[in-house]
Amino acid sequence: MAGTSNGEPLIAMSQVNKWFGSLHVLRDIDLTIDRGEVVVVIGPSGSGKSTLCRAINRLEPIDKGEIRFDGQVLPAEGRPLARLRSEVGMVFQSFNLFAHKTILENVMLGPVKVRKEKPAAVRERAMGLLQRVGIANQADKYPAQLSGGQQQRAAIARALAMQPKAMLFDEPTSALDPEMVGEVLDVMTSLAAEGMTMIVVTHEMGFARHAANRVVFMADGQLVEQAPPTEFFANPRSERARDFLSKVLTH
């Protein structure tokens, strides 16, 4: 999975800054993510994690700095931006499925409407993806008939149907009942093992430990430190990370 011929990272953020009014939510962020790498972003609430994640496909425009995806500077708007977005899958806290369409129709929608692919081929791929996330037997049901965990797995299948180069997960399990968290994390762990490039904002430290290649710790809009999970959890370098871990790992 490593790199293209020129070896440049799939995602490169340099000196990225973002303000909401006077609030400086991203401060001089420098971050590169290689193809096939799984990067988990953790930190206290309000540290800028979700904003960082949403900036990568320009759901959140930045005020300063540069973001490159697959060698190209992020387009500002229009068709090039739509094309870029179709190459970056996004899974949010809320499942954002269309209530009036079946699960299968939800998964097929992007490739058919955006990519103009033939429905028969997309249908086969969509069923394969629903199988892969463990809900093929729910294909003809509507979102309201599924549990939260099943809906989130459908949302993952929908993002994968576009055959993205990278997947962004913004706290994908935080709206779920505790007993459903595992089934979603299992799907994400298998994706990581298959070499999907992933950026995951999460509070699930177990997932960070087991599935990440790298943990990025943010606080106050800054990227405080980053390290492989074994190193980060055993020996965080910053006071801020030590403080954060002592609070989240003791409960």
Automatic annotation (TrEMBL):
GO cellular component: plasma membrane
Location (main, coarse): membrane
Alphabetically ordered keywords of this record: Amino-acid transport, ATP-binding, Cell membrane, Membrane, Nucleotide-binding, Transport
CDD domains (UniProt xref): ABC_HisP_GlnQ (cd03262)
Pfam families xrefs: ABC_tran
Annotated ABC transporter domain residues: 11-245
Localization per record: Cell membrane
Nucleus listed as a keyword: no
The reaction(s) this protein catalyses: a polar amino acid(out) + ATP + H2O = a polar amino acid(in) + ADP + phosphate + H(+)
Similarity section: Belongs to the ABC transporter superfamily.
Name of the protein: ABC-type polar-amino-acid transporter
Organism: Planosporangium flavigriseum
